[in-house]
Specification:
Layout (H helix, E strand, L loop, with lengths): L5 E7 L3 E8 L7 E7 L2 H9 L7 E6 L6 H8 L3 E5 L15 H14 L10 H33 L12 H8 L6 H34 L4 H7 L7 H11 L8 H7 L4 E3 L8 E4 L5 H11 L10 H6 L5 H23 L4 H27 L1
Parallel strand pairs: 1-4, 4-5
Antiparallel strand pairs: 1-2, 2-3, 6-7
Helix pairs in contact: 4-6, 4-8, 6-8, 7-8, 7-13, 8-10, 9-13, 10-13, 12-13
Length: 370
Protein backbone atom coordinates (compact mmCIF):
# COMPACT_ATOMS: atom_id res chain seq x y z
CA UNK A 1 0.00 0.00 0.00
CA UNK A 2 1.34 3.43 -0.98
CA UNK A 3 1.99 5.72 1.97
CA UNK A 4 0.62 9.25 1.71
CA UNK A 5 3.38 11.84 1.66
CA UNK A 6 1.26 14.99 1.47
CA UNK A 7 -2.17 15.69 2.98
CA UNK A 8 -3.72 18.68 1.25
CA UNK A 9 -6.62 20.75 2.57
CA UNK A 10 -8.53 23.06 0.24
CA UNK A 11 -10.89 25.83 1.25
CA UNK A 12 -12.93 26.17 -1.92
CA UNK A 13 -14.98 29.22 -2.86
CA UNK A 14 -16.55 30.46 -6.06
CA UNK A 15 -13.61 32.76 -6.86
CA UNK A 16 -10.67 31.39 -4.84
CA UNK A 17 -9.08 28.23 -3.44
CA UNK A 18 -6.86 28.33 -0.35
CA UNK A 19 -4.28 25.51 -0.19
CA UNK A 20 -2.60 24.04 2.89
CA UNK A 21 -0.32 20.98 3.20
CA UNK A 22 0.31 18.64 6.12
CA UNK A 23 3.34 16.37 5.56
CA UNK A 24 2.81 12.65 6.06
CA UNK A 25 5.97 12.43 8.17
CA UNK A 26 8.24 14.65 10.30
CA UNK A 27 8.24 17.59 10.52
CA UNK A 28 4.48 17.59 11.17
CA UNK A 29 3.92 21.34 10.89
CA UNK A 30 1.11 22.35 8.51
CA UNK A 31 2.15 24.81 5.82
CA UNK A 32 0.21 27.35 3.80
CA UNK A 33 0.60 27.11 0.02
CA UNK A 34 -1.22 30.30 -0.79
CA UNK A 35 -4.53 31.20 -2.37
CA UNK A 36 -5.19 30.90 -6.09
CA UNK A 37 -8.14 31.76 -8.35
CA UNK A 38 -10.73 29.01 -8.68
CA UNK A 39 -9.25 27.28 -11.70
CA UNK A 40 -8.93 23.48 -11.87
CA UNK A 41 -5.92 23.50 -14.21
CA UNK A 42 -4.02 25.93 -12.03
CA UNK A 43 -4.86 23.93 -8.92
CA UNK A 44 -3.61 20.71 -10.55
CA UNK A 45 -0.34 22.37 -11.47
CA UNK A 46 0.08 23.67 -7.92
CA UNK A 47 -0.56 20.40 -6.09
CA UNK A 48 1.18 18.03 -8.54
CA UNK A 49 4.32 20.05 -7.89
CA UNK A 50 4.16 18.65 -4.34
CA UNK A 51 4.67 15.03 -5.42
CA UNK A 52 3.41 12.16 -7.51
CA UNK A 53 -0.40 11.84 -7.78
CA UNK A 54 -0.39 8.56 -5.83
CA UNK A 55 1.42 10.28 -2.93
CA UNK A 56 -1.21 13.00 -2.51
CA UNK A 57 -4.47 12.99 -0.53
CA UNK A 58 -6.82 15.98 -0.92
CA UNK A 59 -9.92 17.06 0.98
CA UNK A 60 -12.35 19.95 0.77
CA UNK A 61 -15.74 20.62 2.31
CA UNK A 62 -18.98 20.10 0.42
CA UNK A 63 -20.49 23.37 -0.71
CA UNK A 64 -22.13 25.27 -3.54
CA UNK A 65 -19.29 24.53 -5.98
CA UNK A 66 -20.37 20.87 -6.18
CA UNK A 67 -18.26 17.83 -7.03
CA UNK A 68 -16.62 18.92 -10.28
CA UNK A 69 -13.26 19.59 -8.62
CA UNK A 70 -13.25 16.17 -6.95
CA UNK A 71 -13.94 14.44 -10.27
CA UNK A 72 -11.15 16.31 -12.06
CA UNK A 73 -8.60 15.44 -9.36
CA UNK A 74 -9.69 11.79 -9.34
CA UNK A 75 -9.30 11.62 -13.13
CA UNK A 76 -5.65 12.61 -12.67
CA UNK A 77 -5.07 9.80 -10.19
CA UNK A 78 -5.15 12.01 -7.09
CA UNK A 79 -7.14 10.71 -4.10
CA UNK A 80 -9.71 13.34 -3.16
CA UNK A 81 -12.61 13.30 -0.74
CA UNK A 82 -15.43 15.77 -0.18
CA UNK A 83 -16.18 16.07 3.53
CA UNK A 84 -19.35 16.93 5.43
CA UNK A 85 -18.98 20.44 6.96
CA UNK A 86 -21.28 19.55 9.86
CA UNK A 87 -18.98 16.66 10.81
CA UNK A 88 -15.72 18.63 10.70
CA UNK A 89 -14.30 19.01 14.24
CA UNK A 90 -14.23 22.55 15.62
CA UNK A 91 -11.97 23.75 18.40
CA UNK A 92 -13.92 25.30 21.29
CA UNK A 93 -12.89 28.87 21.92
CA UNK A 94 -11.44 29.40 18.43
CA UNK A 95 -12.67 32.86 17.41
CA UNK A 96 -10.47 33.42 14.34
CA UNK A 97 -11.71 32.08 11.03
CA UNK A 98 -10.02 32.69 7.68
CA UNK A 99 -9.88 30.73 4.44
CA UNK A 100 -6.27 29.72 5.02
CA UNK A 101 -6.91 28.64 8.62
CA UNK A 102 -9.80 26.50 7.37
CA UNK A 103 -7.55 24.92 4.73
CA UNK A 104 -4.86 24.19 7.33
CA UNK A 105 -7.45 22.70 9.67
CA UNK A 106 -8.69 20.38 6.91
CA UNK A 107 -5.15 19.26 6.10
CA UNK A 108 -4.46 18.53 9.77
CA UNK A 109 -7.67 16.59 10.33
CA UNK A 110 -7.25 14.73 7.04
CA UNK A 111 -3.87 13.49 8.25
CA UNK A 112 -5.32 12.40 11.61
CA UNK A 113 -8.26 10.64 9.93
CA UNK A 114 -10.96 12.71 11.66
CA UNK A 115 -12.85 13.90 8.57
CA UNK A 116 -16.12 12.28 7.48
CA UNK A 117 -16.41 11.96 3.71
CA UNK A 118 -19.65 12.22 1.78
CA UNK A 119 -20.31 9.98 -1.21
CA UNK A 120 -20.08 12.04 -4.44
CA UNK A 121 -22.93 11.02 -6.72
CA UNK A 122 -22.48 9.62 -10.19
CA UNK A 123 -23.08 12.32 -12.82
CA UNK A 124 -26.30 10.62 -13.93
CA UNK A 125 -27.60 10.45 -10.36
CA UNK A 126 -26.57 14.06 -9.80
CA UNK A 127 -28.68 15.05 -12.81
CA UNK A 128 -31.68 13.21 -11.30
CA UNK A 129 -30.96 14.91 -7.98
CA UNK A 130 -31.05 18.30 -9.71
CA UNK A 131 -34.43 17.42 -11.21
CA UNK A 132 -35.83 16.34 -7.83
CA UNK A 133 -34.61 19.50 -6.12
CA UNK A 134 -35.96 21.69 -8.91
CA UNK A 135 -39.34 20.06 -8.35
CA UNK A 136 -39.04 20.91 -4.63
CA UNK A 137 -38.29 24.53 -5.54
CA UNK A 138 -41.39 24.53 -7.77
CA UNK A 139 -43.53 23.27 -4.89
CA UNK A 140 -42.21 26.00 -2.58
CA UNK A 141 -42.89 28.63 -5.25
CA UNK A 142 -46.45 27.32 -5.67
CA UNK A 143 -46.99 27.43 -1.90
CA UNK A 144 -45.81 31.04 -1.80
CA UNK A 145 -48.11 32.02 -4.69
CA UNK A 146 -51.09 30.40 -2.98
CA UNK A 147 -50.33 32.17 0.31
CA UNK A 148 -50.13 35.52 -1.47
CA UNK A 149 -53.46 34.97 -3.23
CA UNK A 150 -55.14 33.78 -0.02
CA UNK A 151 -53.77 36.77 1.86
CA UNK A 152 -55.13 39.19 -0.74
CA UNK A 153 -58.61 37.66 -0.58
CA UNK A 154 -58.56 37.56 3.23
CA UNK A 155 -57.67 41.26 3.43
CA UNK A 156 -60.85 41.98 1.50
CA UNK A 157 -63.04 39.68 3.60
CA UNK A 158 -63.40 36.98 0.94
CA UNK A 159 -63.65 33.68 2.87
CA UNK A 160 -63.73 30.17 1.40
CA UNK A 161 -65.98 28.19 3.76
CA UNK A 162 -65.47 24.64 2.49
CA UNK A 163 -62.73 22.31 3.75
CA UNK A 164 -60.96 21.40 0.53
CA UNK A 165 -58.82 24.13 -1.00
CA UNK A 166 -57.14 24.62 -4.36
CA UNK A 167 -59.38 22.15 -6.15
CA UNK A 168 -61.55 22.93 -9.17
CA UNK A 169 -64.40 24.37 -7.08
CA UNK A 170 -62.06 26.58 -5.05
CA UNK A 171 -60.38 27.95 -8.17
CA UNK A 172 -63.77 28.63 -9.77
CA UNK A 173 -64.81 30.50 -6.63
CA UNK A 174 -61.66 32.61 -6.83
CA UNK A 175 -62.29 33.40 -10.48
CA UNK A 176 -65.82 34.44 -9.58
CA UNK A 177 -64.75 37.14 -7.13
CA UNK A 178 -65.64 40.66 -8.23
CA UNK A 179 -64.00 43.94 -7.22
CA UNK A 180 -65.18 47.43 -8.03
CA UNK A 181 -61.65 48.75 -8.38
CA UNK A 182 -59.90 48.01 -11.66
CA UNK A 183 -56.59 47.89 -9.80
CA UNK A 184 -57.83 45.16 -7.47
CA UNK A 185 -59.27 43.20 -10.38
CA UNK A 186 -55.85 43.35 -11.98
CA UNK A 187 -54.19 42.20 -8.73
CA UNK A 188 -56.55 39.23 -8.45
CA UNK A 189 -55.90 38.25 -12.06
CA UNK A 190 -52.14 38.44 -11.57
CA UNK A 191 -52.17 36.33 -8.38
CA UNK A 192 -54.51 33.78 -9.94
CA UNK A 193 -52.40 33.52 -13.09
CA UNK A 194 -49.29 32.93 -10.96
CA UNK A 195 -50.96 30.09 -9.05
CA UNK A 196 -52.11 28.40 -12.27
CA UNK A 197 -48.68 28.70 -13.91
CA UNK A 198 -46.84 27.38 -10.88
CA UNK A 199 -49.32 24.50 -10.52
CA UNK A 200 -48.64 23.55 -14.13
CA UNK A 201 -44.90 23.73 -13.48
CA UNK A 202 -45.19 21.33 -10.51
CA UNK A 203 -47.31 18.91 -12.56
CA UNK A 204 -44.78 18.98 -15.39
CA UNK A 205 -41.90 18.29 -13.01
CA UNK A 206 -43.84 15.41 -11.45
CA UNK A 207 -43.96 13.78 -14.89
CA UNK A 208 -40.35 14.63 -15.73
CA UNK A 209 -38.96 13.32 -12.44
CA UNK A 210 -40.78 10.00 -12.92
CA UNK A 211 -39.46 9.71 -16.48
CA UNK A 212 -35.89 10.63 -15.57
CA UNK A 213 -35.88 8.14 -12.67
CA UNK A 214 -37.07 5.33 -14.96
CA UNK A 215 -34.34 6.14 -17.48
CA UNK A 216 -31.54 6.39 -14.89
CA UNK A 217 -29.35 3.31 -15.39
CA UNK A 218 -28.05 3.36 -11.80
CA UNK A 219 -31.09 4.17 -9.66
CA UNK A 220 -33.93 2.71 -11.75
CA UNK A 221 -34.05 -0.60 -9.86
CA UNK A 222 -34.27 1.14 -6.49
CA UNK A 223 -36.82 3.61 -7.87
CA UNK A 224 -39.21 0.82 -8.86
CA UNK A 225 -38.65 -1.25 -5.72
CA UNK A 226 -39.25 1.58 -3.23
CA UNK A 227 -42.70 2.20 -4.69
CA UNK A 228 -43.79 -1.15 -3.26
CA UNK A 229 -44.04 0.68 0.08
CA UNK A 230 -47.21 2.44 1.06
CA UNK A 231 -46.87 6.22 0.87
CA UNK A 232 -43.73 6.07 -1.27
CA UNK A 233 -44.90 7.67 -4.50
CA UNK A 234 -42.89 8.35 -7.63
CA UNK A 235 -41.52 11.62 -6.23
CA UNK A 236 -40.52 10.11 -2.85
CA UNK A 237 -38.96 7.10 -4.55
CA UNK A 238 -37.04 9.28 -7.03
CA UNK A 239 -35.77 11.41 -4.14
CA UNK A 240 -34.51 8.33 -2.33
CA UNK A 241 -32.79 7.00 -5.46
CA UNK A 242 -31.17 10.32 -6.32
CA UNK A 243 -30.08 11.41 -2.84
CA UNK A 244 -28.87 8.06 -1.49
CA UNK A 245 -27.44 6.24 -4.49
CA UNK A 246 -25.80 2.97 -3.47
CA UNK A 247 -27.38 1.63 -0.27
CA UNK A 248 -24.49 -0.78 0.27
CA UNK A 249 -22.46 2.05 1.78
CA UNK A 250 -24.66 1.77 4.89
CA UNK A 251 -23.70 -1.48 6.67
CA UNK A 252 -26.67 -1.32 9.06
CA UNK A 253 -30.14 0.20 9.12
CA UNK A 254 -29.23 2.29 12.19
CA UNK A 255 -26.37 3.90 10.25
CA UNK A 256 -28.85 4.82 7.53
CA UNK A 257 -31.25 6.29 10.10
CA UNK A 258 -28.38 8.35 11.53
CA UNK A 259 -27.47 9.60 8.06
CA UNK A 260 -31.02 10.90 7.63
CA UNK A 261 -31.01 12.60 11.03
CA UNK A 262 -33.85 10.37 12.26
CA UNK A 263 -31.87 8.87 15.16
CA UNK A 264 -32.71 10.27 18.63
CA UNK A 265 -30.30 12.78 20.13
CA UNK A 266 -28.59 11.85 23.39
CA UNK A 267 -26.89 13.68 26.26
CA UNK A 268 -25.74 11.07 28.74
CA UNK A 269 -23.18 11.29 31.51
CA UNK A 270 -22.31 8.62 34.04
CA UNK A 271 -25.39 6.61 35.06
CA UNK A 272 -27.76 9.24 33.66
CA UNK A 273 -29.09 8.52 30.16
CA UNK A 274 -31.04 11.33 28.50
CA UNK A 275 -32.44 11.00 24.97
CA UNK A 276 -34.27 13.71 23.12
CA UNK A 277 -35.76 14.50 19.74
CA UNK A 278 -34.20 13.41 16.45
CA UNK A 279 -30.81 14.89 15.58
CA UNK A 280 -31.94 16.37 12.22
CA UNK A 281 -28.29 16.06 11.19
CA UNK A 282 -28.30 14.63 7.72
CA UNK A 283 -30.08 14.69 4.40
CA UNK A 284 -33.06 16.99 4.89
CA UNK A 285 -34.57 16.24 1.46
CA UNK A 286 -35.02 12.54 2.21
CA UNK A 287 -36.03 13.10 5.84
CA UNK A 288 -38.88 15.44 4.91
CA UNK A 289 -40.15 13.06 2.24
CA UNK A 290 -40.12 10.09 4.64
CA UNK A 291 -42.07 12.02 7.28
CA UNK A 292 -44.68 12.85 4.64
CA UNK A 293 -44.82 9.19 3.59
CA UNK A 294 -45.13 8.03 7.20
CA UNK A 295 -48.58 9.64 7.55
CA UNK A 296 -49.99 6.92 5.27
CA UNK A 297 -49.33 4.31 7.96
CA UNK A 298 -52.08 5.71 10.18
CA UNK A 299 -54.41 3.53 8.12
CA UNK A 300 -54.78 -0.20 8.56
CA UNK A 301 -52.71 -2.46 6.27
CA UNK A 302 -54.25 -2.91 2.84
CA UNK A 303 -53.09 -3.81 -0.63
CA UNK A 304 -54.88 -1.12 -2.62
CA UNK A 305 -55.38 -1.15 -6.37
CA UNK A 306 -52.71 1.54 -6.80
CA UNK A 307 -50.24 -0.40 -4.69
CA UNK A 308 -50.87 -3.60 -6.67
CA UNK A 309 -50.03 -1.75 -9.88
CA UNK A 310 -46.82 -0.35 -8.37
CA UNK A 311 -45.75 -3.81 -7.18
CA UNK A 312 -46.16 -5.50 -10.54
CA UNK A 313 -42.92 -7.09 -11.70
CA UNK A 314 -41.19 -6.81 -8.32
CA UNK A 315 -39.68 -9.83 -6.60
CA UNK A 316 -41.39 -11.63 -3.73
CA UNK A 317 -38.63 -10.52 -1.35
CA UNK A 318 -39.33 -6.84 -1.98
CA UNK A 319 -43.12 -7.28 -1.76
CA UNK A 320 -42.79 -9.20 1.53
CA UNK A 321 -40.71 -6.40 3.06
CA UNK A 322 -43.33 -3.85 2.00
CA UNK A 323 -46.16 -5.90 3.51
CA UNK A 324 -44.32 -6.37 6.81
CA UNK A 325 -43.73 -2.62 6.87
CA UNK A 326 -47.46 -1.92 6.68
CA UNK A 327 -48.24 -4.13 9.68
CA UNK A 328 -45.33 -3.01 11.85
CA UNK A 329 -45.62 0.72 11.17
CA UNK A 330 -49.39 0.84 11.61
CA UNK A 331 -49.02 -1.00 14.92
CA UNK A 332 -46.25 1.41 15.95
CA UNK A 333 -48.45 4.41 15.26
CA UNK A 334 -51.48 3.00 17.10
CA UNK A 335 -49.48 1.96 20.17
CA UNK A 336 -47.72 5.31 20.50
CA UNK A 337 -50.90 7.36 20.14
CA UNK A 338 -52.66 5.05 22.62
CA UNK A 339 -49.90 5.84 25.14
CA UNK A 340 -50.65 9.55 24.79
CA UNK A 341 -48.00 10.55 22.26
CA UNK A 342 -49.04 13.25 19.83
CA UNK A 343 -49.60 12.17 16.21
CA UNK A 344 -46.61 14.28 15.14
CA UNK A 345 -44.25 12.50 17.54
CA UNK A 346 -45.62 9.11 16.53
CA UNK A 347 -45.18 9.91 12.83
CA UNK A 348 -41.52 10.81 13.32
CA UNK A 349 -40.99 7.45 15.04
CA UNK A 350 -42.80 5.73 12.17
CA UNK A 351 -40.61 7.57 9.65
CA UNK A 352 -37.50 6.32 11.48
CA UNK A 353 -38.66 2.71 11.22
CA UNK A 354 -39.81 3.26 7.63
CA UNK A 355 -36.23 4.21 6.78
CA UNK A 356 -35.19 0.81 8.12
CA UNK A 357 -37.52 -0.95 5.69
CA UNK A 358 -36.23 1.23 2.87
CA UNK A 359 -32.69 0.20 3.79
CA UNK A 360 -33.77 -3.47 3.69
CA UNK A 361 -35.26 -3.03 0.22
CA UNK A 362 -32.10 -1.27 -0.95
CA UNK A 363 -30.01 -4.20 0.27
CA UNK A 364 -32.41 -6.67 -1.36
CA UNK A 365 -32.17 -4.88 -4.70
CA UNK A 366 -28.37 -4.80 -4.45
CA UNK A 367 -28.28 -8.57 -3.83
CA UNK A 368 -30.61 -9.23 -6.74
CA UNK A 369 -28.44 -7.15 -9.04
CA UNK A 370 -25.24 -9.05 -8.24
Amino acid sequence: MTSIRQYIGLDVHKATIAIAVAPGGPPLEVHSRGTIPHDATRLLNRITALGRPEDLFVAYEAGPTGYGLQRKLTEKGISCIVVAPSKTPRRPGDRVKTDMRDAMMLARYLRSGELVAVAPPDEELEALRDAVRTREDSVRALRTARQQLSGFLLRHDRHWTEKTTWGVKHLEWIRGQRFESEVQRRVLEDYYHEVVCRSARVSQWDEDVARFAEECSIGAANYRAFQSLRGVSTVVSATLSAEIGDFRRFPTASRFMGYLGLAPSERSSGPKVSRGSITKAGNTHVRHKLIQAAWHYRHRPALTKTLKVRQEGLTKGVRDIAWRAQHRLNRKYRLMTARGKTPQVAIVAVARELSGFIWSIGQEVAREGQ
